[in-house]
Write a structure and sequence with these properties.
Blueprint lengths: L1 E5 L3 H12 L3 E6 L5 H9 L4 E5 H7 L2 E4 L3 H11 L1 H4 L3 E4 L4 E2 L2 E2 L7 H8 L4 E4 L6 H5 L9 E6 L2 H13 L3 E4 L6 H17 L14
Parallel strand pairs: 1-2, 1-4, 2-3, 4-5, 5-8, 9-10
Antiparallel strand pairs: 6-7, 8-9
The structure holds NADP nicotinamide-adenine-dinucleotide phosphate.
Length: about 210
């Protein structure tokens, strides 16, 4: 698939790198496509990969991953062009994390706000409640980490679930986009366990069934 990765940081680099290795066509969308950071990433990621401005990256893609800081997400969507995003599968990996925890929550979520800023986008919340180390390598010795996702478009969720499964995650469809109200706090739990409770980033959630 043709996947635009908006944000050339940790998440963008990890997911873009893996999907490129799996044969997808990757277009990184950056505020500064000719800058050192974007060009370094381009050198590190083998395959059918290029970097462009945000608008150009989004306009030709079938799937768009948003991997920007929460504070920059609304501007990024504006730069991408909301008409450009309409009808496209948009993966929202964003966590609305501030210095004292989640900045959005309770009776709404970052995902629902993003949906209101990008009307018509087929939004799927995914990849927000795991670490970039897992995105690069989800191997836990035979046990697949769960990849929780939610959204209101069943077909879009199937595509994202397939992209997650290609990275050796076990996708778990949690229901409508409003379930992001629970997936975003789950990311805070992952961050807290990894960085404040001494577990480190080599941890992943798994849903057990019997
Ligand atoms: N790190 C994790 O383990 C992890 C896991 C799950 C979810 N998340 C979430 O995913 C999102 C991205 O996280 P990340 O760790 O990849 O962040 P990051 O390393 O800081 O990268 C974010 C990228 O967003 C772009 N960007 C656009 N506007 C920006 C602005 N005003 N300031 C800074 N960067 C801007 C930048 O790419 P350009 O310079 O090329 O435009 C930047 O490289 C966040 O919402 C985070 O909460 C992170």
């Amino acid at each position: 698939m043709k996947i635009a990765i908006i944000g050339t940081g940790h998440v963008g680099g990890a997911l873009g790198g893996r999907w490129a290795r799996d044969g997808h066509e990757i277009i990184f969308g950056s505020r500064d496509p000719q800058g050192e950071k974007a060009q370094n990433l381009l050198r590190l990621v083998p395959g059918n990969v290029r970097v462009a401005g945000t608008t150009e990256a989004v306009s030709t893609a079938e799937v768009v991953l948003i991997a920007t800081p929460w504070s920059a997400t609304r501007d990024t969507l504006t730069r991408a062009g909301t008409t450009n995003l309409a009808g496209k599968i948009v993966i929202d990996a964003v966590n609305p994390i501030g210095p004292d925890g989640l900045l959005v929550g309770g009776n709404t979520s970052a995902a629902e706000q993003i949906a209101s800023w990008a009307p018509g986008a087929r939004l799927v919340k995914a990849f927000n409640s795991t670490g970039t180390g897992n995105m690069s390598n989800a191997d836990y010795g035979g046990e697949k980490p769960s990849l929780f996702l939610c959204g209101d478009d069943a077909e879009a969720k199937k595509v994202v679930a397939r992209l997650a499964a290609e990275l050796d995650f076990d996708p778990v469809d949690c229901g409508p986009l409003s379930m992001a109200r629970y997936l975003e706090p789950l990311a805070m739990l992952w961050v807290t366990l990894a960085y404040n409770r001494g577990f480190g980033p080599d941890i992943a959630f798994r849903l057990l069934k019997r």
